[in-house]
Amino acid sequence: AKQLASRVTTLSPSTTLAITAKAKEMKESGIDVIGLGAGEPDYNTPEPILDAAWRSMKEGKTKYTPSGGLPALKDAVIGKLERDQGLTYTRTEIMIGIGAKHVLYTLFQTILDPMDEVIIPAPYWVSYPEQVKLAGGVPVVVQATAEAEFKVTANQIEEVITSKTKALILNSPGNPTGMVYTEEELKAIAEVCEARDIWIISDEIYEKLVYGTTKHISIATLSEDAKKRTLIINGVSKSHSMTGWRIGYIAGDEAIVKAMTNLASHSTSNPVTTSQYAAIEAYNGSQDAVEMMRNSFSSRLERIYPQIQAIPGFHTVKPQGAFYLLPDVSEAMKHTGFQNVDAFAKALLEEANVAVIPGSGFGSEETIRLSYATSIELLEEAVRRIDQFVKSKW
Ligand code: PLP
Q: End of a domain among 269, 284, 299?
């Protein structure tokens, strides 16, 4: 019989994971590789959160929970949304899932019929188009340029809306761009979405990581209508350094949340119980560790950004959030004889022993992504190696 369903044969493998696997293999064979590929904070989960998890297990809280998450965790999320964003939700408008990634997966399975279109600004997070396709939908990519700070405009969005458009994905602060949309930009986008009646999926996973005078604004806060049509996606992975715990949530339309919860009841049963107790502490406890990590990413950015800019042929828009740099390396490639960013990233790994992610997987053919969620010492050594690599081939 035929081995694979067509739904998986059209999947593109994650470029991020491919490079990370290769780097790991090289490391294991004794090569001193610096990995700037990872999309996670380099800190351990804060102590009080670990303690809460441990306590819950000792108390025997090791069984199934309701499919959409523990009521106490929903309340903690509701408290967080009220405190940080001034947004009011009820328990029926919240679902807890197994990381923001699987919440998004469940969302697309819930709202997309075959051929429904979802607008995705590029450069985008690799999983958006694949998840849309897995749900039978059609990703409609809108290109944002470096000149426009990697942000799309309301006009660009309006131009691609059709009768099939179901939703727009917004990711601010963005991965891989690090860009943050302003209130004015979001207002214009919200107006288009209202006029054309489409859902706004607002992926706010990097909400806590904004630097300098930049403020994170959720599009849901801009009007009554914007709140109704926005589905907020967030979680503890990046804010509380909890990537491995796999806790994310959606806040928004009650009917969608209810259908997603039904779907989860047949696919996951519930998010990991221990992780849910940890996440309650993450949201209800002290937020000092969140601020400490933010400050540390901010000072690493200030140190490393000028050094990256100084590499010949690298042109980088200074990010305002998240923990990625996205230099346009087209000029460097031209002078060093590389045809595309995949070949450039491969050579950087093999010859300079620095792992970066080629932008091709993000819908950004001229860029590479570097994560600065690693120590200053390693960052500076990585920049030195990249600089030497480029100069030696120039
Ligand atoms: N959204 C974006 C933009 C991300 O970069 C990531 C993680 O890399 C996620 C969602 C998923 O986060 P989680 O660990 O909660 O699944």
A: 284
Q: What is the mean pLDDT of each run of 10 residues along the chain (394 residues)?
A: 88 78 92 92 96 98 98 98 98 98 98 98 96 97 94 98 98 97 98 98 98 96 98 98 98 98 98 98 98 97 97 97 97 97 95 96 94 96 98 96
Instruction: State yes or no: ipTM above 0.90.
Output: yes
Q: What b/e string do you get for 129-147 counting C-beta neighbours within 10 Å, with b at 16 or more?
A: bbbbbbbebbbbbbebebe
Cα of 36 from ligand 1 centre, angstroms: 17
Assigned token pair, 176: 């891989």
Based on the domain organization, do 83 and 170 belong to the same domain?
yes
Residues with CB under 6 A from ligand 1: 39, 99-101, 125, 171, 175, 203, 205, 235, 237, 243, 248
Q: What's at 34, amino acid-wise?
A: I
First to last CA, the chain: 53
Total of domains in the chain: 2
Q: Whose CA is nearest to atom 12 of ligand 1?
A: 100
Asked whether 79 and 284 are in contact (CB, 8 A), the reply is yes
- For residue 304, give its domain range: 6-44+289-393
User: The domain spanning residue 18 has which CATH number?
Assistant: 3.90.1150.10
Closest residue by Cα to residue 214 from 188, 178, 168:
178
Which among 260, 272, 266 has a CA at the least distance from the CA of 99?
272
Do 227 and 202 fall within a single domain?
yes
- Record the pTM: 0.97
Element (H, E) at 140: strand 138-143
